[in-house]
Specification:
The chain is an alpha/beta fold and about 475 residues long. It has 16 helices and 18 strands.
Length: about 475
């Protein structure tokens, strides 16, 4: 019987297996940031041991950094301490560090791919749940806890049970105004925020193959939002064209040899999955969430479900969610109030996302009632946006290009949505208080965010296309 793509990468990295237990898995690339690494480094120090293979670890601050005036000292004491601690720890252990104001600094899951540090066939971990992003390159990438960060620093290996395999196939052509973000929000709405629990998902089909690498990263990024351990997509010419020539990508003969190997990284025709799902791209419209988990989403022209249409086991949580959002069952999403718009994060903070937003708002003006944060995912994205004149387009339409960081994805920095206010956000989570205590988040694509920012209420982007 043939192997799945996931099996091929996983099995190639198994150092040893514990009968009836987890595998000892070798890790090719370890990404760290300022939030989940301090305790891990403290553990190493207490045990008197060093980092096993520091050249395989890359560090950058992202969660706590401000997105304006980054040349000034960080005002928040905790944030400043965490960023400085990362700097000290990387210096102590000889780890490459892209610190604040470094030309390669940015959101860790944007930095890895754009610098050629993320490659097909790798195992990649980070103390961050959205490490699944890197699976877009045909790697096995997943988030780990702080104790596991210490384990990888100390041994370059991790104890990990092998997940089950799922394949999600999306065939057909996407309609006007429908993006990669809409694909993944649609899938999560279909199987729920826990439907992928215990699985590693391979995304296939013509709609996936036709996505750019940025789009593929968006899809894999949110695999975790359906409970999956991670997601991945087989590498192809799109993948190779994206990687080739990047700063830390292989060169010359090394490149040629790796390309031959990468071309073998696909599921065999007779490979068997534990679960397979099929969807039609034509059934997907621009998506938006109405509740407090990413599975509570629907097509933007649809109305919020009524209580009597909800499964009995989830009625209580559904009612609680609507109460928090102050939404009425059966009401339409189009026209709902919008106070903030956030474009950015490891989900939609890449140059393609900023281009899409800027092209959409060009010639229009931001609604006066909307506060908008347009945040590049890295210094490289920021630089490219300025070189392409995206910052000028945004300014002419009433927007401002900020500086890189996780920003309003989560309430760990200055970019917080105030209590009771509504945000249309291109990030990955809409949990209660995720973007600030009492904030109310609606997840959507950059196009839907742009249309809503212009109109001042939730708006179908196809109206402007």
């Amino acid at each position: 019987m043939g192997k799945t793509l996931f099996d091929k990468v996983w099995d190639a990295h198994v150092v040893s297996e514990i009968e009836g237990g987890p595998s000892v898995l070798y890790i090719d690339r370890h990404l760290i940031h300022e939030v989940t690494s301090p305790q891990a480094f403290a553990g190493l120090s207490e045990r008197g041991i060093s980092v096993s293979r520091p050249e395989r670890t890359i560090a950058t601050p992202d969660h706590n950094v401000p997105t304006i005036n980054q040349h000034l000292p960080i005002k928040d004491v905790l944030s400043a301490t965490q960023v400085e601690t990362l700097k000290m720890n990387t210096e102590k252990y000889g780890i490459r560090h892209f610190g604040l104001n470094h030309p390669y600094q940015g959101v860790v899951h944007v930095v890895g791919p754009e610098l050629g540090l993320t490659l097909p066939g790798m195992t990649i971990v980070c103390g961050d749940s959205h490490t699944a992003t890197h699976g877009a390159f045909g790697s096995v990438a997943f988030g780990i806890g702080t104790s596991e960060v210490e384990m990888v620093l100390a041994s370059q290996c991790i104890l990990q049970p092998k997940p089950k395999r799922m394949r999600i196939n999306i065939d057909g052509e996407l309609g006007k105004g429908v993006t990669a973000k809409d694909i993944i929000l649609y899938i999560i709405a279909q199987i729920s925020a826990s439907g992928g629990t215990g699985y590693f998902i391979e995304y296939t089909g013509s709609a996936i193959r036709n996505l750019s690498m940025e789009g593929r990263m968006t899809v894999c990024n949110m695999s975790i939002e359906m409970g999956a351990r991670g997601g991945l997509i087989a590498p192809d010419e799109v993948t190779l064209n994206y990687i080739q020539g990047r700063e830390f990508a292989p060169k010359g003969e090394d490149w040629d040899k790796l390309v031959e190997y990468w071309k073998t990284l696909k599921s065999d025709d007779d490979a068997r999955f534990d679960w397979e799902l099929n969807y039609k791209a034509e059934d997907i419209e621009p998506m938006i969430t109405y509740g407090t988990n990413p599975g509570m989403g629907l097509g933007i022209t649809q109305s919020i479900p009524t209580l009597d249409s909800i499964e009995p086991a989830t009625k209580t949580s559904f009612a609680k969610s609507l109460k928090y959002m102050n939404f009425e069952e059966g009401s339409a999403m189009i026209g709902k109030r919008v106070d903030y718009v956030f474009v950015g994060s490891c989900t939609n903070g890449r140059i393609e996302d900023l281009r899409a937003f800027a092209n959409f708002v060009k010639g229009h003006k931001k609604a006066e009632n909307v506060v908008a944060w347009i945040v590049p995912g890295s210094k490289q994205v920021e630089k490219q946006a300025i070189e392409e004149g995206i910052d000028k387009i945004l300014e002419e339409s009433g927007f401002e290009l900020r500086q890189p960081g996780c920003s309003a994805c989560l309430a760990m920095n200055d970019d917080k949505v105030p209590e009771g206010l509504y945000a249309v956000a291109t990030t990955n989570r809409n949990f209660e208080g995720r973007q600030g205590p009492g904030s109310r988040t609606m997840l959507a694509s950059p196009l839907t965010a742009a249309a809503s920012a212009i109109n001042g209420v939730v708006t179908d982007p196809r109206k402007y296309l």
